[in-house]
């Protein structure tokens, strides 16, 4: 069975690599040191510092594995290979809900780089799925749990 690929921009991959380096070179040694200190307190059966450090170690190691997998199976998407006004990963799109003057701006990124609080939506999200492949001026229907609605694509630009 083929592994899942993770579409992302080169910048997203570089960000993941930086996170991985921080986990391996900074966080992992910090946790190991905390475990060493907690062990020196004696009886491990009632040592909450030791348990907390071991839990954090498990979390850090899990994060390292996740990042290594995403980096290994990264599929770099070149937004320059699609039309300038076509929505794709690595593009910023401004949409307006049809019938209103409500405008929203989304940065389409790979799932690894999604951060809704900064306007970065995953290419796997319902909004991005409805927008990808459309061009400026097109109408897209977005399916949401509250029902579907139409948006008009106002502009599409390469994300800086």
3D architecture notes:
- The chain is an alpha/beta fold.
- The protein has 2 domains: 6-76, Helix Hairpins (Orthogonal Bundle); 79-158, Transcription elongation factor, GreA/GreB, C-terminal domain (Chitinase A, domain 3, Roll).
- Helix content is 38%, strand content 26%.
- It is built from 3 helices and 7 strands.
- It has helices at 10-39, 48-72, 126-131, and strands at residues 6-8, 74-76, 91-97, 103-109, 120-122, 139-144, 147-158.
- The strands form 2 sheets. It has a 5-stranded mixed beta sheet.
- Helix 1 (10-39) packs antiparallel against helix 2 (48-72).
- The longest helix is centred in the first third of the chain and has 30 residues, at 10-39.
- 24% of the residues are buried.
- The model has no long low-confidence stretch (mean pLDDT 88).
């Amino acid at each position: 069975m083929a592994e899942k690929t993770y579409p992302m921009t080169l910048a997203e991959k570089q960000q993941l690599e930086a996170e991985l380096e921080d986990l391996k070179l900074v966080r992992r040694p910090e946790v190991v040191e905390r475990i060493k200190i907690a062990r020196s307190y004696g009886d491990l059966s009632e040592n909450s510092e030791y348990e907390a450090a071991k839990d954090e170690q498990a979390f850090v190691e899990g994060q390292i594995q996740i990042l290594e997998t995403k980096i290994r199976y990264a599929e770099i998407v070149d937004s320059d290979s699609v039309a300038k006004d076509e929505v794709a990963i690595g593009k910023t799109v401004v949409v307006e809900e049809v019938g209103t003057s409500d405008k929203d701006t989304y940065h389409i990124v790979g799932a690894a780089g999604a951060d809704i609080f900064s306007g970065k939506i995953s290419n796997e999200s319902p909004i991005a799925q409805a927008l990808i492949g459309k061009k400026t001026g097109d109408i897209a229907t977005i399916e949401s749990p509250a029902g579907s609605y139409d948006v008009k694509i106002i502009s599409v630009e390469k994300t800086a």
